Amino acid sequence: MSKIIGVVPARMAASRFPGKPLHPILGRPLLEHCFERAKLHGSWDALVLATCDEEIRAFGEDKGYPVIMTSDAHTRALDRVAEAAEKCGLDAAGDDIVVCVQGDEPLLGPDVIEAVIRPFAEDETVRGTLLAVPIIEQSIFENPDMVKIIHDLKGDVLYTSRAPVPFCKEFSPRLGAMRVGGIFGFRREFLRWFTKTPESPLEKAEACDSNRICDNGMRQRMAPIPYRPYFSVDSPQDIARVEAAMNDDPLWGTY
After folding, report:
1. What values do phi and psi take at 169, rounded to 5?
2. Is residue 254 part of a domain?
3. Residue 174: exposed, middle, or buried by beta-carbon count in 10 A (0-12, 13-18, 19+)?
4. Which end is more exposed in the chain, N or C (fewer Cβ atoms within 10 Å of the end residue's Cβ)?
């Protein structure tokens, strides 16, 4: 059986929102929401917090979270995740599943984690997955902060873009547009390949990590979830929207 390793990467120096991981959401730090909700999934062989910041280390240890200190040279979450996965203390196997649980996704739940893990069991050829969230609002469709997904009929990602794609003359929820949620799954050997492969042209142009995979002829499998209010915290302006959604979220108050 493949081991399932969850890594929650976090750093204080977010460009658009410095100090974001410890900013309060309904009175509790953003990072606490993410880690506690990830813990609700019961199949982890390891779930760790990965950071280069002493402030986050101290917070995590105070909460009893396993903390792995990583290099402060990482600019991408997946590089931090890959380092932590190698340091997590479990015997390494190439087919282990490493799940990147971004530390700014306070509305995640065990069903979301399961969605990202499930394709590995359903299809042994799958080496990477990414959470896919339906888009039903035109404002989300047109928002360049939301990374949209173009995929094939099998559900494999062909391209990700900050542009409103697929093109349409008039937006409708029936378009079936999807966007990237901040949770990604990798076979350990595929994550190693990703971190050793240089940034690709489309990755740089779109500022989307997943395009490194597409540019090199590889594929990620979408892990779609049914529509629900699901928002990350990218800037201070997102706090009110996330808190409103969390007040109606069934997991709030269970951790």
Report:
1. -70, -30
2. no
3. exposed
4. N
Reduce the DSSP state of residue 140 to 3 states and report it.
Answer: helix
pLDDT given for residue 14 in this prediction? 79
- Enter the tokens of residue 8: 């929650």
CATH (domain of 10): 3.90.550.10
Q: What is the pLDDT of residues 119-149, one digit of tens each?
A: 999 999 999 999 999 999 999 999 999 999 9
Predicted local confidence at residue 93, as pLDDT: 84
Helix (H, G, I), strand (E, B) or coil at 41: coil
The domain of 131 spans 4-245
Is residue 159 one of the residues assigned to a domain? Answer: yes
Q: What is the mean pLDDT of residues 183-204?
A: 97
Distance CA(31)–CA(51), nearest Å, equals 11
Q: 31 exposed, middle or buried (CB, 10 Å; 0-12, 13-18, 19+)?
A: buried
> Side-chain half-sphere of 190: how many Cα atoms within 13 Å?
22
Q: Which stretches within 88-237 are classed as H helix?
A: 110-122, 138-142, 188-196, 201-206, 210-215
Handedness of CA 139, 140, 145, 147 (dihedral sign): negative
Instruction: Map tokens 């990700």 to a residue.
Output: 160
Q: In this model, does residue 92 exceed pLDDT 80?
A: no
With 90 as the cut, is the pLDDT of residue 4 above it?
A: yes
